[in-house]
Amino acid sequence: MEFVFALKQHVGAPAGPVVCEGDNIKRGQMIAAKPENALGSNIFSSVDGKVTAIDDNYITIEESDTDFTSYQKLTGNSPKELIEEAGIVGLGGAGFPTSVKLNAHFDGDGVVIVNAAECEPILSHNIARIEQEPENLIKGLKIVMDLVNAKRGIIAIKEIHKEAIEKLKAVITEDDIEISTLENIYPMGEERAIVRETLGILLEPEQLPMAANAIVINAETVLKIREAVEEKKPLIDKDMTVAGKLKEDASVHIFFDIPIGMKVADVIEKAGGLGKEYGEIIMGGPFTGKRTSLDAPVVKTTGGIIAAEEFLPGPKKIGLLVCACGANKERLEEQAKSMGSEVVGVEYCKQAKEVKNSRKCENPGRCPGQVQKVMQLKKDGAQAVLISNCTDCSNTVMSCAPQLKLPVYHCTDGALRAVNHKLIRKFKKDE
User: How far apart are CA 159 and CA 372, in angstroms?
Assistant: First the structure.
């Protein structure tokens, strides 16, 4: 089986190959190193095998007789050295090198917040791992707290995950670690929403959690930190959810320790194989995932692979309402094209503030209303609207669009229909 390792699986500069074509490689061996004095992360092979190709973007290895229960161990000594050497990055999707994030040092009442929200619908591997290994999450959190000199640790988790919460409570013995529960709405996992809900501080879109004397770190990242420090294991395996239009229709599969570099097609085969009819394959979650191909490799930030439902034919003319918390303009345009619709207008949620080369919501998950934006799309000639809005924004769209005789499509529809999940439309507090 062929494994493909992207040289850029993170924020920063691509890693540089340290192997040559024809080399025999062992699982856990470094195959590409981050450039010296540059932001980046190391890349390790998740398999035994031979290097068959190297180019500017990828290293390809033909796997052979891998023992997936073992690996070459890291050589660093201190926790900080091991985390950097291991190539750990933000595994919630951001991909920012974790060793750089942990350069922070608190002098007062700093807090480390574990983002265990499992924010995207369908994705469920983080909670499953926590239910199996609650003690390892606490160990990882303690390592991070010690590294940055934090006085407190908070695990932010949706209140619906009662089993995971109870298992965490059973292993928390420290007075400096607590659990904070979140509403079951999207985007409760956005880091500024996490800070707002746990600390009562609303950060500006440009601000990082450090402005609230906090660090927010994804639950899987915390678990991988523990592996690197206690087991000297590099980042070579990834937990993920595989779901959608599979041969076992409308199914959701959770996999632990999928080897990074495995092709999407091979991961889907582990879930029983792809069904005959599907609309697109999404890497990531329904809100922020990207369209991918069967030949694409799993990377460090891969959290989900979803075979979405076939696209429903759209109207001749459609308007886009872009939310900073969900799919961006380019992603909605891609979906509109697959629906056979011409985009006649683009509007942005009124709270989607431009920050550098992207947009961030001024108050994630708390929407002031979208009537003006929907009315403008109607004036532009839209016969329907395609939105990427969060739960609360979707509520406000549904309060006006139907009255304007505009059908509403959501960027998550294909993924959610594929697993018979309730669509993102009108949300009630008791749901």
Answer: 34
Q: Can you name the residues that pair with 354 across neighbouring β-strands?
A: 359
pLDDT above 50: residue 430: no
CB 34 within 8 A of CB 12: yes
Cα of first residue to Cα of last residue in the chain, in angstroms, is 44
User: What b-and-e string marks burial along 206-232, b requiring 16 or more CB atoms within 10 Å of the CB?
Assistant: eebbeebbbbbbbbbbbbbbbbbbeeb
160-195 residue pLDDT tens: 999 999 999 999 998 999 999 999 989 999 999 999
By CB atoms closer than 10 A (0-12, 13-18, 19+), residue 69 is exposed
**How large is the average pLDDT for residues 90-119?**
93
Looking at CATH, the fold of the domain delimited by 2-63 is given as OB fold (Dihydrolipoamide Acetyltransferase, E2P) (2.40.50)
Looking at the domain 79-231, which fold is it?
Rossmann fold (3.40.50)
CA 250 to chain centre: 21
How does pLDDT run across 205-250, given as a tens digit for each residue?
999 999 999 999 999 999 999 999 999 999 999 999 999 999 976 6
In DSSP notation, 238-304 reads EEEEEEESBSSTTEEEEEEEEETT-BHHHHHHHTT-B-S--S-EEES-TTT-EEE-TTPBP-TT--E
- Do domains 79-231 and 317-418 share one topology? The answer is yes
**Residue from 53, 57, 211, 194 nearest 119 by CA:** 194
For residue 249, the model assigns a pLDDT of 67
The domain segmentation of the chain, as residue ranges, is 2-63, 79-231, 237-307, 317-418
Residue 187: is the preceding peptide bond cis (ω within 30°)?
yes
CATH class of 237-307: alpha beta
User: Exposed/middle/buried for 22, CB within 10 Å: 0-12, 13-18, 19+?
Assistant: exposed
Q: What residue spans of 69-206 are helical by DSSP H? A: 79-85, 98-101, 125-132, 134-148, 162-171, 191-199
Distances (CA, A) of 141 to 129, 144, 181, 211, 214: 15, 5, 17, 20, 13
Structurally, at CATH architecture level, domain 317-418 sits in 3-Layer(aba) Sandwich (3.40)
DSSP category for residue 324: T
**Token output for 392:** 């609360």
With vertex at residue 358, the alpha carbon angle to CA 354 and CA 360, rounded to the nearest 5 degrees, is 60
The structure's pTM equals 0.95
Name the residue type at position 185: I
3-state secondary structure of 366: coil
Q: CA-CA distances (angstroms) from residue 95 to 129, 284, 303, 350?
A: 20, 13, 12, 28
